[in-house]
Automatic annotation (TrEMBL):
<dbReference type="GO" id="GO:0012505">
    <property type="term" value="C:endomembrane system"/>
</dbReference>
<dbReference type="InterPro" id="IPR044527">
    <property type="entry name" value="NrtA/CpmA_ABC-bd_dom"/>
</dbReference>
<keyword id="KW-0997">Cell inner membrane</keyword>
<keyword id="KW-1003">Cell membrane</keyword>
<protein>
    <submittedName>
        <fullName>Nitrate/nitrite transport system substrate-binding protein</fullName>
    </submittedName>
</protein>
<keyword id="KW-0472">Membrane</keyword>
<dbReference type="Pfam" id="PF13379">
    <property type="entry name" value="NMT1_2"/>
</dbReference>
<keyword id="KW-0813">Transport</keyword>
Amino acid sequence: MKPEISNLTIGFVPLTDAAPLVVAQEKGFFEKYGLHVCLSRENSWSQIRDKLAAGAIDAAHMLAPMAPASWLANAYAAEKFVTAVAFNLNGNAVTVSEKLYQEMVAADPDAMFERPTSARALKAVIAERLRKGRETVTVGAVFPFSSHNYALRYWLGAEGVNPDRDVRMVVAPPPFMVDQLDRGKVDMFCVGEPWNTLAEHRGLGRAIVRSADIWRHMPEKALGVRQRWAEDNPDTHIALVSSLLEALIWLDERANRMEAAYLLASERYVGLPAALLAPALVGKGALRTRRSIVEAEDFLIFHHYAANYPWRSHALWFLSQMARWGQIEAPANFLAIADGAYRPDIYRIAAARLGVAAPLCDAKTEGAPDRAWVLTEATAPIAMSASAFIDGGVFDPAAVGPYIEGFIRHNLRIDPSQVYAGA
């Protein structure tokens, strides 16, 4: 079908996981579907949000939680956003300054031998700083409604650290995070690549835990569009999803990853040497332990394990964390929000046209099973993998309220029983 509009402007933030947009542009996938795209580099997620809401851009490289967050009654955005294709699972890491790293080693050396690294040593550092009357640890996240923020909070909470009381949480855009570490404005951060690698390259910090260690297959970025735009331009939307799905399949091939690094290195996109972009792409995004460097398997998943499917259980989990940490201040119908913001029905149309297997269910249990498995409720069987949380938790999308109630550390502003109330 012919797109209703063919000239599109798509915003992105300079990150390695903007690769699907860059590949679709440079390898001709957009053009194949009759789309003429201008990629617009933006410095921050707030710019992405505001420009997309205002119609200054047609679509965007978007943090996965931004779409459901835009549907809340206390919406942070002027428009409702939807996503019909996810870009990747995993891809973030927690980096600490060299000074903080040494404090953590001194405070609890055994904890720093663990794999994955817990926040136990950090908890000891926080307590020691408090005892000595020093300022607590300052922690940077890229946006309030981001997987980075929720990963950090989950990691901290798993060891009894309350991120709203025991540390100081601040927001900084990804391209500026390393500078914030260098200037001592933050002691640690969670950010996507290549900024963790750059911090290590400059000798400023060490990546100690990956988002994949906190939640084995944590959803990260997605394509975001305005709800009204999607309704007005259904064929354009499907063409856009189709072109990106082809780019994501291309990226999933390891043989193509170095070429992707060189494409991203352009000043038009990320503007850093390919050598700094390659580690995360080729599966060698490294973590430093006290004994060795640990190479990351599947640091960035672009397509396999149904990575591109907009699981509504992902939206519901993000909403559970928004509620847990006080970002939701009034009763909300989580199911209605997830149904509106995440559109697996649109994904299935695009996947069918490409002959790509797609799930036929809209949600799944997150955090289980703890082994490889096969999704048979799909147009063709799909190989899946374990999806564990660092604390062994399991998220049942049919029991969001009880899940939220189960957290000891939280900053709840609503009764968890109200998560199915009127939006």
